[in-house]
Amino acid sequence: MLTIIAATSENNALGKDNQLVWHLPDDFKRFKALTSGHYIIMGRRTFESFPKPLPNRTHIIITRQKDYEAPEGCFIVNNLTNAIALCPKNEEVFVIGGGEIYKQSINIVQKIEITKVHTSVEADTFFPVLDLKRWKLVFEEFHPKDEKHAFDFTYLTYVKR
Length: 161
Fold this sequence. Notes:
- The chain has four helices and ten strands.
- It has 161 residues and is an alpha/beta fold.
- It has one domain: Dihydrofolate Reductase, subunit A (3-Layer(aba) Sandwich).
- The chain has an eight-stranded mixed β-sheet with strand order 5-4-3-6-1-7-10-9, with helices on both faces.
- The chain starts with a strand and ends with a strand.
- Pfam families: DHFR_1.
């Protein structure tokens, strides 16, 4: 199963200057719990936003750069089709960004895991608008802001109708 996982604001912002625009420790924990042990597909800029490869995950990096080098254990491909072809067919695979990779994959994934951050922020990268006629909300869990989280947020799980 191919699943998108993302954190977006109310105005579908993902980030600015190749960085997230909020710090939500519980969302990081959820991301780690869901993606650990799985293949993760991402664009080059998303990969480069990490200080190092994420532990216990197989990284597939999409880039048009012919001579791009990544750390050992990471796979480099030139398009989404080739990225998907590298993944096991009987396991959940996560598309983790960025904006362009989400746009390319939104119509072929079976599930979307969104953390909706209840704020609107200035950004340069956005998540595609979901056509709710094509997606069914199957899980929703609200988290109020607290001393570790500057914003309220809600976990939302959608499956293709």
